Amino acid sequence: MSAYETLTVETQNRVGIITLNRPRALNALNSKLATELGRAATELDNTSNIGCLVLTGSDRAFAAGADIKEMADKSVYDMTANNPFAGLEEFGRVKKPIVAAIAGYALGGGCELAMMCDVLLAADNAVFGQPEINLGVIPGLGGTQRLSRAVGPALAADLVLTGRNMDAEEALRAGLVSRVVPAAQLRSEAMSVAGMIAAKSLPVIIAAKAALRAAQETTLAEGLRYEQRTFTSLFALDDQKEGMAAFRDKRAPDFQNR
Ligand code: HXC
Predict the structure, then answer these.
(1) What is the pTM of this model?
(2) CB atoms near residue 163 (< 10 Å)
(3) What ipTM was assigned to the predicted interfaces of this complex?
C-alpha cells in the first residue's frame, strides 16, 4: 500500500482499514486528505483479496468537517475549477462496501463523509451535525440530500437550518446509524461487521451495494427494475450455485469469488 500523510491504511484478513489522521485539526478534510482518501479507497477497491473497507478517525473526531482555515479565503472559481474535494467524489465511486466507524465529532463534511459510507456504526460519544449555516454556507457534500433521505425531511431541516448537533442515541433513533456501541468497542465491532461482509461472494456484495445505492438515487419503479435485473443476473455465478447447494446440503457455503 502507498504511504499517505493524512491517513493510515492497514489490511487485516480481507478488510482494508483507512484511519483519518490529522489529529491537530480534528481530522478536518483539507484537499490533501480528500485526495489521499480517494486514492487510498480506490487502491483498496482494486485490491483483489479485500472484500470490505472500514473508514474511521480518532476517539475524539471522525472528522470535524471541511478544513475551514483552508477554505476561508477561496473564491467561487477556486471552489469549482479547482474543487478541493474532488478526491471525495472518487471515494463515492468505490464499489466495495464501506463501514464507517464513527467516534467523536462527525460534523459538516465529516457527517457527509460518513453518509457516503454504507454501514454507519457510532460510538456512544459520537456527535453529528451540519453546522455550515453558522459559517454562512450550506452543506456541500450531500448534507441536504443524503441527510434528508437518511433521517427524513423534518429532522434534516431541523439540523441543517439550526446547525445544532445530535448525539449518538438521537442518530440511532433517526436511522442515521445502525448501531451504537461503547467507544472502546467501536473498532472491534466495525471489524466484525466488515469481516462478515468480506466473507461473502465479492461480486454479490458489490451487486448488493449498487442496488442499495439505486434506492437512494432513482425512483422506486426504476430501482425495482434495477434490483430485478441484478438479482436475475446473479444466477450466472458459481457462487449462487454454491450458496444454494450449501443450504440444501446443510453446510456453510464455500464461495470462490472472493
Ligand atoms: C479547520 C478545525 C476544524 C475545521 C476543528 N479544527 N475543526 N480546523 N477546520 N473544520 C481545529 C481547531 O481550529 C483547533 O485548531 C483544533 O482543530 C481543535 O479544535 P477546537 O475547536 O480547539 O476543539 P474543541 O473546543 O473541542 O471544539 C471541537 C469542535 C470545533 C466543536 C468540533 O472545533 C468546531 O466547531 N469545529 C468546526 C466544525 C464545523 O463547523 N464543521 C463544518 C465545516 S464546513 P487550533 O490550531 O486552532 O488549536 C464543512 C463544509 C463541507 O464541512 C462541504 C464542503 C464542500
Answers:
(1) 0.97
(2) 15
(3) 0.98
